[in-house]
Design goal:
Blueprint: H1 21-24, E1 29-38, E2 41-51, E3 56-60, H2 67-74, E4 82-87, E5 90-91, H3 97-101, E6 104-107, H4 109-113, H5 121-126, H6 142-154, H7 170-182, E7 188-192, H8 200-214, E8 221-226, E9 238-243, E10 246-252, H9 253-256, H10 259-266, E11 270-275, E12 278-283
Parallel strand pairs: 3-8, 3-9, 6-7, 7-8
Antiparallel strand pairs: 1-2, 1-4, 4-5, 9-10, 11-12
Length: about 280
Amino acid sequence: MAAPEPPSESLITLRTEPRSGAALGDRVVRMEAATVRRGPVTLLDGVDWTVEPDDRWVVLGPNGAGKTTLLRLAAAELHPTRGTVDVLGERLGRVNLVELRTRIGLSSASLGLRVPTDEIVRDVVVSAGYGVLGRWRERYDAADTDRAEELLAALGLRGFATRAYGTLSEGERKRALIARALMTDPELLLLDEPAAGLDLGGREDLVSRLAALSTDPAAPTSVLVTHHVEEIPRGYTHGLLLRGGRVVEAGPLDDVLTDDNLSATFGLPLAVQRRRGRYLAWLR
């Protein structure tokens, strides 16, 4: 199989004009004392978090830290048990969630598991316009299918449009889901562990494409969840560290990713270093 095409300096033109804070409002995401409980278990505990227009956030933490729960709040997939969550200027609990979700692009492993294996890759992408997984009787015009194929090509999947989703490798599936997340030209892009399960080559290819996307002035505000600092693309600006459902630290990435903060987050004596715009971490 041929290697995927390398990403261009600008991954893809998503809009004819760059996004602006005025267009999106003052805040993209704002959480105040956001708490999520399920029975006796507290998944998130009093989280305060603000995402500004054009931010590129990475959310880090161990298994069970609450990262996916945080992302689901930002994706308007669940409501907080206590506290408030505003997404794209709308307060959860006071807004039509179906309409709000059309403004958010989401890529996650759980979403990938719901895609029918026999679905054509182009249809996986284009069906995001109707918020469905699997094309049925919806109608799409040539502009829709052209955009889907353009996004696939930008993510290294040129020529894959008519392949069955189930025939793709893990890395190819991840890139197809990111293309789907970008299909509706979202104002907020949420990526839940996009590099999980990839080999070294697949991870580096994906991270380089996300770095290209992060520098595109037309790209949406982004939040990426990961377990590993090595998966943080160049161009990401802010970091949020979670442990046990609580915020350890949040702010500009270089201020957040310190030895002490990372050690407190993962419960081990860790060292972290930035090299050529990327991060490395190891046990001291």
